[in-house]
Design brief:
With 278 residues, the protein is mainly alpha-helical. The protein is 75% helix and 4% strand. 55% of the residues are buried.
Length: 278
């Protein structure tokens, strides 16, 4: 494969990844890492490094649009970033001492859980009308546009959500996926935040989380510009397209896309990790 064909292939894969990542709050890394590793033979740690760069690009591209449209809850995002940033640094440190086969298997197991919750988990019927005591004290509730009107929502179970966000940060640093899958599940199920607000706020958060762990990968030489540049450009373009679609997309469709994409990639990564191919 020539350098030109490789670059175009990486860009095309990243374009699709960015589109799906923007729609579901995954951040694109969930598609970029296994695609680069399994389809193009890139070492998984270099794929993770490129993915972290793409996650920052996704957050920059999609988050601005979501904030402008009134979907992202900036206050929630900044509060939860305290936990995810600390976790991301810890995860990036652990990655240096973890086998690539083990990383691939952990990657797959985490994503299977996220896919299962999205496809078959019991989701709350609607947003809560008011926050619990801690959510109200921190003023985490907000409004988002839906069918031409503003819908108010509250926030619950803040300690549980904060704890899950630390775990999401660890996974981000270890796997390079932006941990959007875990963040969306944590906000949607634990904190009972509406799904569209969860996905858009996840997009807002993942850039900061990825930046924290990307610095560690950069210092260890795992970010190669020849891979990272086309990944970043592709994901950024895909994220912009996805942000245009999400505003009008039905929630059930988003959950279905989320679950199918994550499950397919999870199975592929586990099988290849067990076989020692990554």
């Amino acid at each position: 494969m020539t350098v030109l064909i490789f670059t175009v292939a990486v860009w095309a894969i990243s374009l699709i990844a960015g589109f799906l990542g923007s729609l579901t709050g995954l951040g694109g890394g969930v598609v970029v890492v296994p695609a680069l590793t399994l389809m193009l033979g890139v070492d998984i740690k270099y794929a993770i490094g490129a993915s972290l760069v793409s996650v920052i690009a996704t957050s920059s591209g999609a988050a601005a649009a979501y904030v402008r449209e009134g979907f992202s809850n900036v206050r929630i995002g900044m509060f939860l970033e305290v936990a995810t940033t600390i976790g991301a640094i810890a995860g990036a440190w652990l990655a240096a001492f973890t086998s690539t086969h083990v990383i691939a298997i952990i990657f797959g197991l985490v994503l299977i859980q996220s896919a299962w919750q999205s496809l078959f988990g019991a989701h709350h019927a609607g947003p809560p009308t008011q926050s619990d005591a801690l959510g109200a004290r921190l003023r985490l509730g907000g409004d988002y546009p839906d069918k031409g009107k503003l819908c108010h929502y509250g926030v619950r179970n803040v300690p549980a959500g904060f704890s899950l966000m630390f775990g999401a940060g660890v996974l981000s640093g270890l796997l390079g996926i932006g941990s959007g899958a875990v963040k969306v599940i944590a906000m949607d199920r634990a904190m009972r935040i509406p799904f569209k607000v969860s996905t858009t706020t996840s997009n807002f958060m993942i850039g900061v989380t990825a930046a924290a762990s990307a610095g560690v990968y950069l210092s260890r030489g795992y970010i190669d510009p020849r891979v990272a540049m086309p990944v970043m450009l592709g994901v950024l373009a895909g994220a912009f397209l996805g942000s245009r679609v999400l505003v009008h997309a039905p929630v059930r469709t988003l959950r279905l896309v989320f679950g199918i994409v994550v499950f397919a990639m999870a199975v592929e990564m586990i099988l290849n990790g067990l076989a020692g191919k990554v």
